[in-house]
Amino acid sequence: SAARAVIHTMRSEPEEALRACLAGLASEQTAAATRRLFLLLLARARFNIALKGAQPFEPRGDDEDDVLPPSGPIGVDPQALRLAWVAIEEAVTAMEETRWVANAEFLADIWVAAASMLGIQERVKDRVLAAARTRPDNAALQTAAETIAAQCGDFKAALEANGRTPEGERRTLRRVAFLNELGKHKDCTELMEGEFSRLSHSQALYGPTLVSAALSADVMARDDLVGAWRSTLLAGDNELGAHAATLDFLLAIRRNRLERAQALKELRRADSELGHPRPTTILLFHELDAGDKDQAPYFLEVVVRLRALFRLSPMVAVRTGVALATLGRWGDL
Question: pTM value?
Answer without folding.
Answer: 0.91
